[in-house]
Amino acid sequence: MVPLLVAVVLALIPAPEGLPQHAWYYFAIFAGVIVALMLEPLPGAAIGVIGVTLATVLCTFVLFAPDQLAKPGFKAPAEALKWALSGFSNGTVWLIFAAFMFALGYDKAGLGRRIALLLVKALGRRTLTLGYAIAIADLILAPFTPSNTARSGGTIFPVIRNLPPLYDSKPNDPSSRRIGGYLMWTALAVTCVTSSMFLTALAPNLLAVELAKKIAKVDISWTQWFMAFAPVGILLLLVLPLLVYLIYPPEVKEGHEVPKWAGAELDKMGALTRREVELSVLVLIALALWIFGGAWVDATTAALVVVSLMLIVGVLTWDDMLANKQAWNTLVWFATLVALADGLGRTGFVGWFAKALAGHLGGIAPTTAMIVLVLVFFFTHYMFASITAHTTAMLPVMLAAGAAIPGMPVAQLTMLLVLTLGIMGILTPYATGPSPVYYGSGYVSGRDFWRLGAIFGVIFIVALLVIGVPWTAAMK
After folding, report:
1. Which domain holds residue 390?
2. Is the pTM of this model over 0.85?
3. What's the chain look like in SS3?
4. Domain boundary residue among 51, 84, 117?
5. Per-residue pLDDT tens over the stretch 119-161
6. Is position 176 within any domain?
């Protein structure tokens, strides 16, 4: 009843000044959906479907302004349905789905288990060292992989999901906290940091640079980006596995017998099988396309090509894919959330919110206003299921608002805003491409995911402001 109550109470409150009534009604539905995702009275995908369906049914009241409805030939029900299904045409949604298929391929071929056993044999005496191994792997791939979903969800996740079962840690089970929860959260937190660390580690970073050039007249090179975030990013990467270890501790801290057992299991597995070799070749093709093929093939297309090749060579069967409930569940869940988040921009809520904020910053000291703008830009990501959508909708308004404040160091504000794009992916189970993958693994419960997202979100943004504000000011 709580999500329903939140939506009804908000809807009964008159729309704030300057915001169309239909946009306020839509926001009420969106807020109810977010509360439901937090409390989980139903599975997340079911909540997403219900939210989209409700907005579609009430489309003439929540999705469209009166002037739109009055246009000759405008068919609201048809346009509403087109909007409701738009999330299923989103490239990131299908890249997430492909990541689950990659993981299934690793599992079926046995390659994931072999790599996991090799990791455990080398580093498995302590859980903490496994955390640092994940961080190093992501850091190595990050500068060359402009999709964190491909990098973390498609490359790292399929390997590390094989680690918890080796320690008798199972998904959607109390044993998930033995080690699985620690490894999954570490992987997500690390990829969020590396996504902010390199201009080429996250596709929206490149969009942000273009917007900064056009709107704020600020040019940001690859080196400038890296140097601006390096003090924050290097520190976070050095402490993150330990920080997760302390805040979300695994039950298994060390096990001297496990590496010996892993060695024995590797001996039993013997030499690489034909299926493992085939999958290894396909994974290398995917990596090569993700790293070098961006000018010719989209990251999602590359992933779907490799999934298709898995089917052709027999690494996977269609029945295997149909039976992967986690993949299909995540596909529906994230697709509906992408549509719901898009509705905030479509109805004009996002633009109104940003302009209202800018109007309240007049008379505030430039540095204080800069920090407020960065904080608002960061935490409004709770309203978005795509960093690209967030960048497109919010960055131009924030830059324009900052430029209108007398004495504002626009170049520094621009840099701080764009550097938040990767780290804001930690906030929610739908904040960035890898989030639904790790959430869907079943090793971090919904309640823990929201709680940890808030904790690490605060840690990340505080680190950026405390270290980044004086550092970027000194870079001038």
Report:
1. 344-474
2. no
3. CHHHHHHHHHHHCCCCCCCCHHHHHHHHHHHHHHHHHHHCCCCHHHHHHHHHHHHHHCHHHHCCCHHHHCCCCCCHHHHHHHHHCHHHHCHHHHHHHHHHHHHHHHHHHCHHHHHHHHHHHHHCCEHHHHHHHHHHHHHHHHHHCCCHHHHHHHHHHHHHCCHHHHCCCCCCCHHHHCCHHHHHHHHHHHHHHHHHHCHHHCHHHHHHHHHHHHHHCCCCCHHHHHHHHHHHHHHHHHHHHHHHHHHCCCCCCECCHHHHHHHHHHHHHCCCCHHHHHHHHHHHHHHHHHHHCCCCCCHHHHHHHHHHHHHHHCCCCHHHHHHCHHHHHHHHHHHHHHHHHHHHHHCCHHHHHHHHHHHCCCCCCHHHHHHHHHHHHHHHHHHCCCHHHHHHHHHHHHHHHHHCCCCCCHHHHHHHHHHHHHHHHHCCCCCCCHHHHHHHCCCCCHHHHHHHHHHHHHHHHHHHHHHHHHHHHHCC
4. 84
5. 878 887 888 998 998 899 889 888 877 778 888 888 888 888 8
6. yes
